[in-house]
Amino acid sequence: MKITEARVIVTCPGRNFVTLKIVTDAGVHGIGDATLNGRELAVVSYLQEHVVPCLIGRDATRIEDIWQYLYRGAYWRRGPVTMSAIAAVDTALWDIKAKLANMPLYQLLGGRSRDGVLVYGHANGDDIDATLAEVARYREMGYRAIRAQCAVPGLERTYGVSADKLYYEPAATDLPREDRWSTEKYLDHVPRLFERLRAAFGYDVHLLHDAHHRLTPIQAAALGKALEPYRLFWLEDAVPAELQERFRLIRRHTTTPLAVGEVFNTIYDCTTLIGEQLIDYIRMTVVHSGGITHLRRVAALAELYDVRTGSHGATDLSPVSMGAALHFDLWVPNFGIQEYMRHTAETDAVFPHDYRFDDGYLIPGETPGHGVDIDESLAARYPYRRAYLPVTRLEDGSLFNW
Q1: How far is Cα of residue 47 from the mean position of the Cα atoms in its chain?
Q2: Active-site hit among 206, 209, 212, 353
């Protein structure tokens, strides 16, 4: 079965998405997500100019061979642009193969390991009382796990705190917005938030928190230790992880579970973290780490060391990635949790899908493939709009990690 066409579709139903659609001579098509938030057109160019010409005429059923061809054959390996492009191809090919088998993707991967996929939502507020109110709202919606973020007193803006509480989108300005940050104020404030949350909601709800790469190892260790009484499900992205060994110091000083990996692209970004059991959850996702083929390898390595998956699932992943991730999550034996940020009604209309939320879980459907498609005529009504993620400076003006 030969690939006869592969085209890149860019649409912006409230935010930018990049989708690859692969068509075969058997009349079966598959789609994959190639969105790289704030750098979307870099992946578009990589696909259109370098990848698509190499796909035409290839056997669409040879998923592993095509993955190796695009990864090893390019010589310039890894990186978010390359791996997002490979992921789009890989996801589309798995979609096609599952459709040919006339079964939902999770069956092709090996079948169910669980009945549903535990997900967490994002609750945030301008102060602690407002965050508590949002956590209560998410509980009423049926969430069993909730990430809590709160504005830090003395700072104009804080990561994770948004005006729209369901559809948070940080890439919202034509040029990068510059925010100010104080780690000292943040470290003073966060334990107070979780003290109040546990007092209000007890321990029958999972609570998570994202530090977004803004701490040093010793600061992260101190925060993890301070949060131990509140039994977080995880502390996410405590430090930048280019140097994996940073987590050794954190691990020596706290038992708060640690999660990292949403910006990772290959298995080589996490071999030390997993092999030395320095983390508890690996957060790599389908779209930015080479697709299902590569994510299976990461999960297999993690399983050896009792590390669970906790894939990134913010709105910079289209419903295509979410659908593929849910089939992966339903199958993978060492699943932990799945991030779930709801897409807008406009996005859901462009990407019709069969997964559903039920009592704290997402349930992928039984449609052959990964269960997500794209309405191309509707997508064409939403042209690309340039949008950047913010950048961050310390209070003295030094550039810092966003």
Answers
A1: 21
A2: 212
Q: Judge whether 159 counts as a catalytic residue.
A: yes
Two structure tokens written together for 329: 């999550």
Can you tell me the distance from the alpha carbon of 171 to that of 223, in angstroms, rounded to the nearest whole number? 28
Q: Out of 2.130.10.120, 1.20.120.610, 3.75.10.10, 3.20.20.120, select the CATH number for domain 108-369.
A: 3.20.20.120
> What are the counts of helices (DSSP H) followed by strands (DSSP E) for the chain?
14, 16
Looking at residue 400, its amino acid is F
What lies within 8 Å, CB to CB, of 335 at 6+ separation is 113, 114, 117, 118, 308, 309, 329
11: phi then psi, degrees, rounded to nearest 5:
-145, 155
Q: Enter the tokens of residue 107.
A: 């069956």
What's the pTM?
0.97
CA distance 40 to 37: 6
Looking at 46, 138, 143, 159, which residue is catalytic?
A: 159
Per DSSP bridges, beta strands 258-260 and 117-125 are unpaired
pLDDT, one tens digit per residue, over 335-364 is 999 999 999 999 999 999 999 999 999 999
Contacts with 377 (C-beta within 8 Å, 6 or more apart), sequence order: none
- The domain ranges of the chain are 3-104, 108-369
Position 98 pLDDT exceeds 80:
yes
Q: Using CA atoms, how far apart are residues 399 and 253, in angstroms rounded to an integer? A: 28
The residue with tokens 């559903």 is 356
User: What is the CB-side half-sphere exposure of residue 205 using CA atoms within 13 A?
Assistant: 29
- DSSP-based three-state secondary structure for 104: strand
Residue 168 designated active-site? no
* Residue with token string 């419903």: 319
pLDDT value, residue 171: 85
Nearest Cα to Cα of residue 155 among 129, 185, 125? 185
- Res 258: pLDDT: 98
Crossing angle, helix 319-331 and helix 291-304, to 10 degrees? 40
So what CATH class is 3-104? alpha beta
* pLDDT per residue as tens digits for the range 2-41: 999 999 999 999 999 999 999 999 999 999 999 999 999 9
Helix (H) or strand (E) holding 119: strand 117-125
